[in-house]
Amino acid sequence: MQPSHPIPKATLFSAAVIVAALGYFVDIYDLILFSIVRVSSLTELGVTPGTPAMTDQGLFLINMQMGGMLLGGILWGILGDKRGRLSVLFGSILLYSLANIANGFVQTIDQYAWLRLIAGIGLAGELGAGITLVSESLPKEKRGYGTMIVATVGVSGAMLGYWVAGFGWRQAYFVGGGLGLALLLLRVSVFESGMFEQVQAQAGVARGNFLSLFTKPARLGKYLRILLIGVPLWFVVGILVTLAPEFGKALGLTGEVTAGLAVFWCYFGLVFGDFFSGALSQVWHSRNKALKVFLGFCATLVAVYLFGVKGASPATFYGVCFVLGVSVGFWALFVTVAAEQFGTNLRATVATTAPNFARGAVVGLVPAFKYLSGQLGFIPGAAVLGGLTLVVAFWAVSTLPESYGKDLNYVEE
């Protein structure tokens, strides 16, 4: 169903783009902060470094955070289509900011875990709402550039997280929460999506019905394929990079590596990857072609990470982490594709649940990795799991309809 009234379009550097970019910056800072401070924070809470408990407790806390993102993805996605993109954008920022401030005061691992769950729920809303708002606000020929700006600015938040963590892990959580609360002051400069307001005024249009994604086989198939595209990134970040110290030992590196520095270099690479993947999708007039190229690039770098740096120096390993980050820099492009595949009454639901279900795939990837590494070995287990996620993602892209230049001013029946 196509609404009849034209929607005014914003400029590329409008308030919506700027606020979405800054929101994603704080989102990534807080999302990846635990990977940076995992060892230092758990050590202070009584876990001995270099023991299996350090790995197990770290994976437990990652699962709590990602589990929260699974719940939050559904919650914020539905609210985004029922109440509006702005309410989700700023509501999610408020929740994860308060949770991260509280995280700076934890004294036990149980407290840590519950606050990572709450923070995960909050972190689930910002990206999907921001990308939806930007996609609906910009002309269709510039959508890719807008989401490229959001991603390029946003992923650099991880680098700030690494730098701030040097002052102490508790202080790093305080700073993250404070940045989010400061961002809320910009709310007055951002306007709601015209497409959403138009659909909101229409009688009889069901908005934010998450279950409707499962009522038609074609719609469900498209949704599931979108989810699969984002899983390789979280295999890389959630397994390969977060467990960099463990992989460093398994690879026999000449010196010790830290997860914090591995995350820093990976996300530094992501800045460039998100820029180039978004730009290529615009230049080639094809989201799918750009995604295929980056998935192939990612497969090559995963192989280099696992088999090409045995006995190398930490500097070489970090260099590979940087290029690996470039190769998975298709995250915002993936979320843009999710937003472009569905109508206005389901767009926020899809654009918010898809990245969070992809992020939440870590909940399944972790036990799968533990099983495969137990059966095959640490490195072969990672290779099998990574290869599987990449093959499935490439298939998903290959069978998904092209969405570049698609008119988004319509609703799902």
UniProtKB/TrEMBL annotation:
Annotated InterPro entries: MFS (IPR011701), MFS_dom (IPR020846), MFS_trans_sf (IPR036259)
A Pfam family this chain is assigned to: MFS_1
Record has Transmembrane helix as a keyword: yes
Coiled coil: none
Location(s), subcellular: Membrane
Keywords, sorted A to Z: Membrane, Transmembrane, Transmembrane helix
Entry protein name: MFS transporter
Organism: Hymenobacter mellowenesis
